[in-house]
Every structure is written in structure tokens, then in C-alpha cells.
Task: structure prediction
Amino acid sequence: MELYAGLDLHSRNTYIGIMDKEFKRVFGKRVSNKLPLILKILDPFQNQLEGIVVESTFNWYWLIDGLMDAGYQCVHLANPSAIKQYEGIKHTDDQYDSFFLAQMLILGILPQGYIYPKEDRPVRDLARKRLFLVRHKTSHILSLQSLIARCSGQRVSANDIRKFTVEDLQQLLEQEYIVLSAQANLDTIVFLKQQIRQLEKAIKNKVKLNKAFQQLLTVPGIGLILAMTIMLEVGDIGRFPPGH
Result:
């Protein structure tokens, strides 16, 4: 008998729903997020399972990797942002999404996410962490610019702020507590710059820009780090249909 499983993953537990290709529910149970426990529950069904679906939540890595390491090669990652268009086919008594995920897989309409290779994922995530820090650095630069303009009437460029010292802040702002507030921004900017450089160095040492992405460097405004970031986010270019 062909079976299909949907795993409704939450932060602390997972609801496992298994149905056959006629949409008959064979098994359903909520379990804690412990990989050995989940594998033990799936084990009696392993030889019959034609597909397992896990929704792409913030914490899917451990579950997808664990299932694939345990020999489940029919694992799919559901794309939640594209699933809403099919909510009309949900059963009215669905308490959990697990059977809905399995049903879409059976019907061949499951919107799937890309399972980024386990071995390459850490560097991709490191590039994302770099971007996260860059955004925070920018927010502190904007905050400091606003504070200076508000308290001194002067417009200071981001390039000038990168060269600022505490003495520069004292001359511009004078008032002790305003200087302390500005210094908090400035110290954070300096710290984030150090962290960003450290991450960039690690990414450069690990990743070599492949030939398919060398052309990105010919685009104005795209340097080595941005080109590598694009490459890491894209992953296998073959996963995109031709012409897209």
C-alpha cells in the first residue's frame, strides 16, 4: 500500500499524519521534536512511504537532514507562501496541516521549496548573517545621522560617520547624555564593521566564485562579496526552469 506522510513541524512538537493515495488517514499523532522518536514512529511505515512532506518553517534543518540521513530519499520541503492558493481543498475537519500537506503531494500540486545541500548550507547561512549585520550597521549609521541633525542642525554623511571619533561627537553635540547616546551608536558601528570583515574573510576563504557567476563581477555595483552572496543564495542554477 502506498502511503504519504505530512509532518506539521512546530517549535516544540510535530504532528505526523499519514494517509494512503485514496486520502484515507492511516495514522496521526503529535510527538515532541526528538528525531529518534519521530524515526521510531515512521519506521513501521518506511517501506510503504512514497513521500514525506515537511513544511518550510524556521526550524526545518534538523528534521529534513535527519530523515534523509535515515534513508528517506522521498523527502519534500513545502513552500508555505505558495500553499495558500490551495487552502480551498482542505478538509473541513482538518485540525492539523499534516494531512493537507500529504494530500497535496498525492495530487501532485505541492508547492515545493529548495532543500539546500546540507554540506553547503553553513556558508550560505554565514553570508546571510553578514547581511544581517550589515543591515544593523546601516540602522545605527542612520540613527546617528538623525541624532546629529536633530541636536546640531548639521547633516553628516555616512562616509564621515565612519571616520568619526568620540572627540568629534563631543564637539558636535556638547551635552553629556546626548554624546553618550551617539557614542553607543558609534561603538556599535565599529564593532559591527569588525564582525562583518571577519565573516567576509571566512566566506572568501571557503567559497570560490564559479565560472557561471564570474560574469556578475562585470556588472557595475557588484563586487566579490555580493557576487558570492548571489551564488550562495542561488545554489544549483539547474533548479530554475530555462529562461527564468
